[in-house]
Amino acid sequence: MSTTADRITITQAGQYLICAQVQYASNALGIREAFMRINGSTIFMDTYATTSPTDITSVVMSTIKTFAVNDYIEIRAFQSS
User: Fold this and answer.
1) Number of domains in the chain
2) How far is it, in rounded angstroms, from Cα 30 to Cα 49?
3) Which domain, by its residues, includes 18?
4) Which CATH number is 55's domain given?
5) Exposed / middle / buried, residue 17 (Cβ in 10 Å: 0-12, 13-18, 19+)
6) String of DSSP letters for 18-66
7) 36-64 pLDDT, tens per residue?
8) Which of 6, 65, 69, 81 is most buried by its number of CB atoms within 10 A?
């Protein structure tokens, strides 16, 4: 695998365990969403988190997926508040 600031590129085809953790600032408003996508478009893992006015919200995602050479993975996070 090779990495840049915004993606991981697969250099050898096969199955991979992909794990990510995203933390959001405390805020009682809005939604929090984190997702993994392949090759800039196809979302293959998506999760939403509940809000907390006083605590940091943390989301942990993991999955096993088969990738081809030059596929790339991106982890994206969104908070609407």
Assistant:
1) 1
2) 10
3) 2-79
4) 2.60.120.40
5) exposed
6) EEEEEEE--BSSS-EEEEEEETTTEEEEEEEE--BSSS-EEEEEEEEEE
7) 999 998 898 888 887 778 888 888 899 99
8) 65
